[in-house]
Amino acid sequence: MGKLKMEAAVLSQRQLAADIYSLVLKADEIAAQACAGQFISVYTGDGSRLLPRPISLCEIDRAAGTIRLVYRVVGFGTESFSRLKEGDRMDILGPLGNGFMKQQKKAILVGGGIGIPPMLQLAKELDCEKSIVLGYRDELFLNREFEPYGSVYISSEDGMHGVKGNVIDAIKEYGICGDILYACGPVPMLRGVKAYAAEHDISCQISMEEKMACGIGACLACVCQTTEVDGHSQVHNKRICKDGPVFDAGEVDL
Amino acid sequence: MEQPVNTSVTIAGVTLKNPVTVASGTFGSGMEYSEFVDLNKLGAVTTKGVANVPWPGNPTPRIAEIHGGMMNAIGLQNPGIDMFIRRDIPFLKEFDTKIIVNVCGKSTEDYIDVVEKLSDTDADLLEINVSCPNVKEGGIAFGQNPKALYDITKAVKAVAKQPIIMKLSPNVTDITEMAKAAEAAGTDAVSLINTITGMKIDVNRRTFAVANKTAGVSGPAIHPIAVRMVYQTAHAVKVPVIGMGGIATTEDALEMIMAGATAVAVGTANFYNPYATSMIIDGIEEYMKKHGITDIRQLIGCVK
Ligand SMILES: Cc1cc2nc3c(=O)[nH]c(=O)nc-3n(C[C@H](O)[C@H](O)[C@H](O)COP(=O)(O)OP(=O)(O)OC[C@H]3O[C@@H](n4cnc5c(N)ncnc54)[C@H](O)[C@@H]3O)c2cc1C
Ligand SMILES: Cc1cc2nc3c(=O)[nH]c(=O)nc-3n(C[C@H](O)[C@H](O)[C@H](O)COP(=O)(O)O)c2cc1C
Ligand code: FES
User: Fold this and answer.
1) Does the CB of A63 have a partner CB in chain B at under 8 Å?
2) Residue A50 sits at the chain B interface (C-beta within 8 Å)
3) How far apart are CA B136 and CA B138, in angstroms?
4) Which atom of ligand 3 is nearest to the CA of A220?
5) Which CATH class is domain A100-199?
6) Which among A167, A199, B6, B186 is least buried, having the fewest CB atoms inside 10 angstroms?
7) Which mean pLDDT values do the consecutive 10-residue runs of chain B (304 residues) have?
8) Secondary-structure class of domain A210-254 per CATH
9) Which of A2, A211, A216 faces B63 most closely, judged by CB atoms?
């Protein structure tokens, strides 16, 4: 099959926290092929806001042919998505990028803020012992949904939930250990996770973010600096949309 | 009975089965988009700018969204001509479409180096980008001064085996003066417009939205400016004009053709509609059938 652009029907929309929404879409062709860590491009349907909004797949239900997006309202596009209701339609393109490379090793899953959603599908797909570390600014979301898949540890910046501080503080506080780290979240968090993995000599995969135009590897808008020469342009710039968004932490300069 | 329509156009002796190509830099070398469009259907594929050596391009963020379009300062990241000849041209050669290679450089020698290396390849046409607003040296410096444009055109034409297309910048006072300089120096065709230099400020971060500070505006928002410039250019020179700038629909493409473009290129629209080129090719044919036009040439420059 491969990537495609399609009009998907909204099956449900639910608000999870003050500015966090959960949207379930009917998208058989995408659900059939997608895996944890991949994303889709979502279009606003507004003729003046043309670029896609990249959103990770939070859950994929192949049997039902549905995908779930969990997103934070931060601007025009995400605000317009939050107003969609059951039966509405939206243009999406996917599945995009390479997901996590799953390994049968005792895993630590780390999600920070709006990097938490893709970790849910990963938690479902990984068939091994898992510690799940979720970092929040303040209000919690999705945390309960992780509970069936592993031990869940929480940190929050305001200290209202779990450990006061960030995900690394939680890992240290609870003495969490594992043989591989999978992480998605803001760059400062990824830096911390990468350093932690290097220090403990465990492998580490991180999911990156950048502004995108094509979403499929053609425009070179979304590059990140890499230690190795990239295959496409022979420089040190991998395309997050095509070569990522998940990279081996050692591959990227953060 | 339906009359067959002829959509083929000829640019400097190279015949395109239809007048639709893609704008350089928006389609890579076609690999990624071949998952969405049958490249055999396109009149030509125009590739991303390629220099004599790999260029890393600009820091990120490289793009920003604006109303009805976007801004970019990719900075011509490319793998260099050697890799391009080994990988990208053989890929495109597998398809029944013409190959237009977009060439960039920082000095006259850079351009000549690339053009000479392309001489024994299957490239059909060379588009010389002297209008990229996003690189500090070279590039646009050649495209904003008629004398400099004349000189670079002459130098490239002297070594090029394939016909050349000089790609003009809209960031000038009088586009016709530039087109005439390129024509006088012997260019086989001209293409326009490249992006229009702009600036966007991110008020939340209180800094430039694109790291390069300035960036090139493209997309539907610039379409009327492009149509005007194509019209003016088509009236000022005899060489064929390839029109681009904000083409997203059949109507946009037809406007450009009626203003005087022999061929048209679809750019930014690919990003939000990867099927845009294919839809426009079908749309042009439908329009011709509906209006009893048997040859696309009846439409080129029909609006005087
Ligand atoms: C691979 C990937 C996966 C993502 N997954 C999620 C997710 O699961 N949930 C979620 O809430 N957010 C996710 N994001 C971030 C999300 O793409 C942005 O929050 C969203 O694009 C903002 O759009 P807007 O119109 O609301 O904001 P505006 O600020 O109005 O957007 C303006 C432009 O900037 C782009 N943009 C703004 N912020 C970002 C950003 N952080 N990353 C990339 N482009 C941006 C928009 O796409 C748009 O083109 C992901 C980003 C990437 C790259
Ligand atoms: C992301 C991006 C990259 C581009 N790269 C190039 C390039 O490498 N060489 C070039 O001559 N023009 C480049 N352009 C300019 C386009 O080819 C075209 O002239 C311009 O975008 C106007 O057309 P549009 O509005 O349809 O996009 C680029 C444009 C965009 C948006
Ligand atoms: S968004 Fe175009 S290359 Fe990644």
Assistant:
1) no
2) yes
3) 7
4) 3
5) alpha beta
6) A199
7) 86 98 98 97 98 95 98 96 96 98 94 96 97 62 89 96 97 96 98 97 96 97 98 98 98 98 98 97 97 97 96
8) mainly beta
9) A211
